[in-house]
Structures are given as structure tokens and as C-alpha cells.
Amino acid sequence: MSSCALPPPLPRRSNSGHDPRVLGTIALPGVAVALWQRFTDAAWARPGLDAAAPERLPRLRQTLRPQDAAAAIRGACDAAALADCDHRRALIDHVADLTQHAARPMGALLVTLRVEVTDGQSCPKWHLDAVRARLLCTLRGAGTQFGPASGPAQVDRIQQMPTGTAALFRGRNWGAEPTGILHRSPPAIPGQTRLLVVVDPVDEAASC
Length: 208
What we know:
Elements lengths: L12 E5 L13 E6 L11 H4 L8 E5 L4 H11 L6 H21 L3 E9 L14 E8 L4 E7 L2 E2 L3 E2 L5 E5 L10 E4 L9 E9 L1 H4 L1
Parallel strand pairs: 1-2
Antiparallel strand pairs: 2-9, 3-4, 4-11, 5-9, 5-11, 6-7, 6-8, 6-10
């Protein structure tokens, strides 16, 4: 009598905590997403950041060393004419922290840092990113949605990240153990502008 072995279940576990070292748990067996709950208060930079006009919000896409993130986002704030004030300084510090904490678990010497401003649903489909791992953090507006895959582009038990929480998701290129967690941008809310930080580790081979 022959038997057919079933494939192992896809990793679907999520870890969360207030210590940034929780992001390192993404490498543990079975973990598909690690959430750093840095801010229990979603209004960490309000009213200044939420009150800023969308054209004054920084926009950035740059491959850099993690330690250079503060200078890069400062330049983006200058380019957007975002006034020097407490919420601007908090924004620069937070993006710099996010970049360095995203790079550390991957051992990445370079990262691609994106700061995006959008008023629509930029990624409406449930998906995996074509990277080893990706950090997402919404600093203004609704947070990213995620959940366990129930099909190629479907999830059940939809969860939504709070504003200010950072999540490190395994991507399509993680390696031998694929992931069972998909994510997408939240549905657009009329009149609401999102400010999203995205950090991808750059593999040395890809950067050459």
C-alpha cells in the first residue's frame, strides 16, 4: 500500500512586539511576518504630519546604505518644502530607524528606501513581493492589510496594520521556505492621503 506525503503547511505565523528586535524573528521557522509596534498611539506625529498638505510630504526612491537614510529623507523634506519643525524631525528620525532596523535582520549593506504619497489604492491585489523581504510602515493614513492565503490571490481573516506599526514580510525570494501571508494596500478613503515607507534589502549580487 503506497502513501503520498502531503507538502508541509506554508508559514503563516505573525510575531509582534514593542521591541525592534521582533523584526529579527522573521527568520524563525513558520514566521511569515514580524510586526514592530513602535507607536501604541497612532497620532505619534499629529497634528503636524496629518495637517501637512500632500504636496509638502516627502517623496523618495533611493538605494543607499542604511546609515545614510536620515540625510536622504532630510533632502526629500527640503525638496517638498516641509517646514523644519517637531513633526518633520520626528519623521526623519523614524524613517532612519525603520531603515536600519529593516536592514539588520537581513544583514543588508544596501537597501532601497521608498517614501510614497498616494491617495488611491496603489496595490489593490493580494500579493507577494518579488524580494527577499520587505518592510512596510504607514505613517499617515490607513495601514497595509494582510492575511493568510486561501488561494493564489485571496486571503481569509483580513487584518490591518495600525498607523505607525512596521511589518517585515517575507517575499517571493525568501528561499526554501515560502510564505503563506499575502498583503495589499488598503481601499482608498476619499480625502485621505497615505504616507508609506517601504524598505527592501538589496542583495550584494543584485547590486553589482
